[in-house]
């Protein structure tokens, strides 16, 4: 079993209990651990895989709480750092369909320092670049780019999820696109929402989006389509894989559950090159990942709603 390194933010999601889709009027919030890379790390470990989190939290009580949550979920946090800056927070409201609207209060996540000693650990393993805040500047962006270069120089399977958040980029989507291109160009696996695929490709139809993104360099592409399932695309073949029907209450972390399950399956292979050559194998993997993503929407909170191995593979 290969180890999956997940780099980026670990934060607190404060989810509004009332005043649906109106953060300004919300008075009561529930505290939930989150952050896309942390969610992915937990998704992998909860399925029985090996994950390692690389990121920074504050030296405050929230930071301690978050690291304990990861430990409780069997995520290796020996490479996590503590910063004097406060732990990053996100405030989230949900509408009746479980769709989210959120605002970041950024803190310790951007203080991650690059550690050159980690490079050798990447060899023959998987590195997932899926942080929502990694391209926003600060030390995190520098560390993120340097870890990506390290992954390129090792025998490392590289996964990328841009995790675009419109509120974070405002009118700078052109900057976001430019910063994503090297990751798309050099990653073995790229996971996009339909919105991200359209933004990064300039196309509308999912298949057209995938063709453009393949031209940039991505080898295997998955575009999540919500209740319609997932478009699986290689440079030779495309297919939409249906998902299962569930009673959705909160979509927070669904994409992370999906990519976490997919990476868990890839990590279980003797050789990651297998998936580049076997579309039928990829199809079966995406079916399981769809199931994991769907199950994660049936409860509140990202990490607490992640399914275990039995739910995904034995049901």
UniProtKB/TrEMBL annotation:
For the keyword Cytoplasm, the answer is no
What Pfam families does the annotation carry? PfkB (PF00294)
Q: Where is the Carbohydrate kinase PfkB domain?
A: 1-307
Q: Give the UniProt record's GO annotations in the biological process aspect.
A: fructose metabolic process
UniProtKB keywords: Kinase, Transferase
Query: Its Gene Ontology molecular function terms?
Result: fructokinase activity
| SUPFAM superfamilies assigned | Ribokinase-like (SSF53613)
Q: Which family does it belong to?
A: Belongs to the carbohydrate kinase PfkB family.
Q: What is this protein called?
A: Fructokinase
